[in-house]
């Protein structure tokens, strides 16, 4: 099997490429080596792939000619290339939409022309918006949009729309409605929809893996588009305390990048046709404060500082049920949070 990985020189891509290679797959990489991701101009990524004997095509997936050429002879495509993170402000919106939505459209067109019949696309937990909630009195309830006055008053838990009581979070499954709360999330929803259209119109198989909070070796550094684990780690490397927003009680599912890589390998051999989506999480709930504490302990750095700051585009709680991936793909996470963070070592 020959698999081309778009964005294969990035954080998750590096782990996915290694896992595919270890599984005996013939792997190729397409990556634009964009400077907001590869601060050294892609020098280390080029060297790493060259030493591994993995061919790299430096191209933007929005370039149809280059992408089509790189897909020639491929049996499957793993599509990771994307602009990630919550974003800074609306000045990012056109870059997100162009890179993620238009980029995916070009990838799908090129894949169809190349005769590719299997696609695994990196989606995200952000497609759900807020997670699943219950009101102690009124039962299952959707969380309303975040209220800035409530947040400014330090009331971070979403309120029941009927009685105003704090809602209680629960695990979210793949059948939950999509409710994107920021630009990045909206592009991920659209990527999934495009993948489903591609699968239906070509008679192929497309899998969207809804990744939860990924951490591990190779996390991006010192960029506003990084995930929370990378942001905390960057602070510790500077000798600074991790700054935890809200009260640190935000519930998340932190999944190690090696487990994520195994999920992509499993997905290449799953779902015989059509489109399917799977949560990819550790299955264990932790808070953002827990993560900051574990990272500080492993790095030997200063204890986290809880700031009370907030971002309107964030969500309070989002934790995964990954039971569907376990049943359909035979995949389950193996690396616990403390073990995974400890392996990162000193900052």
Question: Which properties best describe this structure?
Answer:
347 residues, alpha/beta, 7-stranded parallel β-sheet, 3-stranded antiparallel β-sheet
Describe this structure in words.
This protein is α/β, with parallel strands linked by helices. Helix content is 35%, strand content 18%. The protein has helices at 11-22, 43-51, 64-71, 93-113, 148-152, 183-202, 228-237, 257-267, 288-299, 323-329, 337-342; strands at 2-6, 26-31, 56-58, 76-79, 118-124, 132-135, 139-141, 168-170, 205-211, 213-215, 243-244, 251-252, 254-256, 274-280, 286-287, 305-306. A 7-stranded parallel beta sheet has the order 3-2-1-4-5-9-14, with helices on both faces. Strands 7-6-8 form a 3-stranded antiparallel beta sheet, with no helix packed on it. It has a two-stranded parallel ribbon with strand order 10-13. Helix 1 links the parallel strand 1 and strand 2 (26-31). Helix 3 packs across helix 4 and helix 7 (228-237) packs parallel to helix 9 (288-299).
How would you sum up the global shape? globular
Radius of gyration: 20 Å
Total of DSSP H or I helical runs spanning 4+ residues: 11
| Beta-strand content estimate | 15-25%
Global structural class = alpha/beta
Helical residues, percent = 25-40%
Largest sheet: 7 strands, parallel
Low-confidence stretches: none
**Which strand order spans the largest sheet, edge to edge or round the barrel?**
3-2-1-4-5-9-14
DSSP strand tally: 16
Distance between the termini: 39 Å
Averaged pLDDT, please? 93
Q: Secondary-structure element sequence?
A: EHEHEHEHEEEHEHEEHEEEHEEHEHH
């Amino acid at each position: 099997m020959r698999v081309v990985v778009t964005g294969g020189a990035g954080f998750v891509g590096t782990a996915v490429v290694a896992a595919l290679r270890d599984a005996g797959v013939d792997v190729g990489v397409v990556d634009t080596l964009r400077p907001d991701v590869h601060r050294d101009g892609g020098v280390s990524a080029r060297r790493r792939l060259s030493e591994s004997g993995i061919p790299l095509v430096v191209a933007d997936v929005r370039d149809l000619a280059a992408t089509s050429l790189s897909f020639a002879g491929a049996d499957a495509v793993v599509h990771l290339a994307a602009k990630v993170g919550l974003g800074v402000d609306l000045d990012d919106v056109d870059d997100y939409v162009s890179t993620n939505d238009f980029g995916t459209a070009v990838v799908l067109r090129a894949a169809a022309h190349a005769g590719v019949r299997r696609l695994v696309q990196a989606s995200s937990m952000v497609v759900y918006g807020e997670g699943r909630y219950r009101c102690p009195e009124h039962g299952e309830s959707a969380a309303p949009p975040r209220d800035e006055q409530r947040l400014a008053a330090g009331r971070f838990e979403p309120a029941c729309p009927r009685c105003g009581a704090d809602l209680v979070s629960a695990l979210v499954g793949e059948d939950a409605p999509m409710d994107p709360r920021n630009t990045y999330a909206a592009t991920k929803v659209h990527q999934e929809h495009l993948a489903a259209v591609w699968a239906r119109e070509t008679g192929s198989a497309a899998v969207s893996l809804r990744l939860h909070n990924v951490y591990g070796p190779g996390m991006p550094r010192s960029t506003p588009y990084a995930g929370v684990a990378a942001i905390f780690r960057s602070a510790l490397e500077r000798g600074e305390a991790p700054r935890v927003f809200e009260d640190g009680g935000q519930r998340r599912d932190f999944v190690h990048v090696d487990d994520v890589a195994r999920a992509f390998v499993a997905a290449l051999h799953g779902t015989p046709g059509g489109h399917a989506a799977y949560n990819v999480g550790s299955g264990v709930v932790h808070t953002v404060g827990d993560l900051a504490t574990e990272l500080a302990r492993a790095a030997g750095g200063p204890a986290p500082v809880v700031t009370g700051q907030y971002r309107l585009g964030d969500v309070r709680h989002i934790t995964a049920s990954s039971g569907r991936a376990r049943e359909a793909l035979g995949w389950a996470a193996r690396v616990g949070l403390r073990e995974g963070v400890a392996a990162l070592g000193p900052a």
